[in-house]
Fold these 2 entries.
Entry 1:
Amino acid sequence: MLGQTTASTIIAGFSPAALAFDAAGNLLAGGTAQIGAITSSSAFQTGSRFWLPSLPAEGQLVYNPPVDAYFAKLAPDLSILWATRFGGESATGVSAIGSDADGNIFVGGTTTAHALPERLPLQGFFSPTQTGYIAKFDAQGSQMLWSTFVGDARPYSVSGLVVDAAGNVTFSGQTLDPRSGIGSPSLYTGSDILIASLGPGDPVPSVTLDAVINTASRGTTALAPGALFTVRGSGFDPSSTRVWFDDDPVTPFQSATGDVVVRAPPSIAGKNVVMVHVDAAGIASNSMVMPVAVAAPAVYTVDESGVGQAAVQNEDGSANSLTNPAARGSTVTILLNGVGDLPLNVSITLGAQLVNAQVVGDMTRVSVRVPDISTQSPLLFCPVTVEAGGVRSQPAVFVVVK
């Protein structure tokens, strides 16, 4: 005979997908969050980090947040002890959750967000579509201890994890066949099951490598020769820091935020992967594996977020903006990264129309003619897409056209 319900609760805006108990008997719940999901004031992420434009758009531009991962700790009476979001510029979800003897929280799931927060990662984002991730947070859900993408160049989905008494986390998931697209797993052929274990690891070094992101898109992408990348971490010494790409050290220049910016060296051309680490004052950071491509095209944005208004000059040299749109038939100049110095096939799309591109000086500035797009609206927010060497730039970037 079934017993009576002892407690129940509703968390608005939260869609649960994973449950577990910690050593103290508290309930851990993970899933996805929409607008309105409550978070704690001390949460690692209290709200959406990105608001994305709905494109193409005519008239008034509407911004919406992506679906974020969400997890919470609830007391035995199901009162919320804390709750946090975890996400980037695109959809992320929790499909597995657990804790260790100290109460630290482990979450795993699937993401399409290249700007998902990373710390002490093992690898970058390899798949062209979705990949898995594993992250560890403190017992209060306020500090991320480490986070890494997992998976190879195929779509990957983390489906479960367990944590043993020593703090080792073992996760499982499915590597999907990219030829079938993203859909029901039953439609995939040639899929593989991956089970892997991550140990507690060595003590955190005084020099850390936390992320290597495309300087324009602000998300992790494949490396490409000649492209600019921002290296995030801690313990960098401006006078002695070097970023190593396998056995090739590169001297960076310091950025305004304290991170360092490097140009990926020609030596990575022709490779599939490289091992990246930072050396500062003779102290080596942790290493991470990064994919390599012939190009890593990305469009710079005005607010340096990697989404929204593109960094574009109108024909008269003024900045393109909501109050200063480009005229149809005029020429605009787009600021790019990652197209490289190789003779690649580069194409640019404004809205749904492929436009001819003319290089201005080098491949970091390209001029294009704004097509005569038919619209009844006084303003059109036109998506910008750059493709080079078969690789596409980030979505949700636009030029304002009148």
Entry 2:
Amino acid sequence: MITFTDLVALMLTFFVMLFAMSTLETQKWQSLVDSLAENLSAVGERPVAVPQADFDMPAESPPPGTDLDYVAGLLREQLPAMPSLDAAELLRADDRLLISLPADLLFAPDGVELAGDAAPAQALGAAMRNLPNRIEVAAHGAPGRPDASPWELSLLRARAVAAALARAGYDGPVAALGYGEGRSRALPQSWSPQRRRRFARRVDLVIHDTAREAPR
């Protein structure tokens, strides 16, 4: 029994045999090739206009702020005179200055609201009021603590301190950063283990060497 598929296959085979037995007319084929070559050669590569000058806007560098060594010298004189900041540590990095406070100076255990009258945060805000440098608040959690979310806890604490700085008179933008327990080992190795444990949970006021943005 011959099916429709078999019939189509036989017809296809028949046409393939006819094509295989046909003779290509060389003259007509060459005429076709010459005609195509002549028409395609007329379509050459179009020149692309190249800009003669570089109009890219250069990246604008932020203006420098007050020299951090000078700021560090002033803070070393002022911090001991502020009872609420007597436990603060001053740490110098390449392009920033950190005022590091243990979290127990600002918050109740596992708390995200500033404890008491928020005197340390108020004192920091008053000290930063006239500083033109860009600042950030970075909070850190301690590893191995049964916190529901060290990252969330540290972020809420950073926001609380940033809000206190604004209430104390600092009118510049303040970025609030929560690092959880990711930077618990960034403390100086020269510190005692007891001191490192206390500062594992901390809030850093980060003073950059560039100026803050002007209020819009």
